[in-house]
């Protein structure tokens, strides 16, 4: 999995209940054709990334088919999750 583009937006909590800073990343990814994630429509991962007293972390993510906005039921592998976490930290 390669991250080829991203956008990021800070999420505001109007209630003040949630602690820390929250960001929504949309990470455009490319995967090899032989990968089970591959789709000709393109893929991105929507990530909710939090920075608080416990440190930076991913609290939620979803794989989404780019041209159709269809949710895909896949999980990040351990090395992919580490890649996404590092990428979000570096591009905040």
Structure characterization notes:
With 92 residues, this protein is mostly beta strands. The chain is built from one helix and five strands, in the order βββββα. The protein starts with a strand and ends with a helix.
Q: Tell me the domain tally.
A: 1
Radius of gyration: 14 Å
Please give the share of residues in helix.
10-25%
Order of helices and strands: EEEEEH
Strand content: over 45%
Number of DSSP strand runs: 5
What is the terminal-to-terminal distance? 20 Å
Q: What order do the strands of the largest sheet run in, or round the barrel if closed?
A: 1-2-3-4-5
Largest sheet: 5 strands, antiparallel
List the helices and strands and how they pair.
Elements: E1 2-11, E2 21-30, E3 43-52, E4 55-65, E5 71-72, H1 78-90
Antiparallel strand pairs: 1-2, 2-3, 3-4, 4-5
Features:
92 residues, mainly beta, five-stranded antiparallel beta sheet, 1 helix, 47% strand
